[in-house]
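Hi R.,

Here's the chain you asked about this morning:
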Amino acid sequence: MSRTTTTVTLFLVLGLSVLLTVLNLGTAPDAAFHAPTYAVSLTGKYLTFAILALSVDLVWGFAGILSLGHAAFFALGGYAMGMYLMRQIGPRGVYGNAILPDFMVFLNYKALPWYWLGFDNAIYAMLMAVVVPGVIALVFGWLAFRSRVSGVYLSIITQALTYALLLAFFRNDMGLGGNNGLTDFKDMFGLPLQADATRCGLLVASAVILCLQLLMTRYLVTSRFGKVLIAVRDTESRTRFLGYRPEHYKLFVFVLSAIMAGIGGALYVPQVGIINPGEFSPANSIEAVIWVAVGGRGTLAGAVLGAILVNVGKTFFTAALPELWLFALGALFILVTLLLPGGILGLLSRGRKAKPITPAPEPAE
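And here is the predicted structure, written out as tokens:
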């Protein structure tokens, strides 16, 4: 991944978020250049998907770990933020000193479950959005990489993990809203969630965190650690023979990518206004892999580009031709795999290399 590509991506992401903020807050609602609130929230959602795609590209593009369960970490971060937002809603049912969310009142809960304690504090909630995905990834990764599970078997296991969490969160006795999930949020950090300024703040925060993660991952993969990681991806047995422990490198990036995805999920929930077990769907993880493939596996910036472009297309297709979207997505993945194995950035890079070199003029005799 070149420095130029990184710089361009950073400018585009930050520039777009600042432009939309100015056009939303600095213009009248009836002005020709006014950016509607729904466009601000939609763009913020795209950027959180780009964070998820970046986390997938880190493990797939540079460690060779095709994870089909990263949506689980994204959803866990989202639930942590959703629990905080539910605790900010005014009294629905009060028992002792605990304010119960509305669905607990409906289900006749008499006390707030122990794992909800502390989520009335914003710092604690944000910490859990990082810790919970990280710990689950640490346990899962340690067991899988220690046993040298790799390839398609690891992909199947990661998909089984997210499906198991999907089934668990569907249960009402989990105390997390069951099938309906968590919604009807009102305030965030003491600010009204529906206010234009709050929406714009979330958009800018998503852009800044995406850019920071992009810079961090680029530094990581271009360092000595990254070179060893790529060696593990390409020839794991030879890397092990040279004295390295591939499972340690894999575990580190797997946990790091899970934390990145959890942060993306925490930013996603307040911008869409709901989190439910459907976010654990294995199809969401597969879509994230498609975003990375379209943009360019192993390019980081390509993952960001692919996530934004595919989701813009999804928004158009699901509105104009909703019954054809899944066919379009499947066709896109097949075409990219067959015709553009390097994705969009790979095609651009190949185009630059294919430019003819003008020979230097021969000296006059």
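One quick note: The chain has a mean pLDDT of 88.

Cheers,
M.
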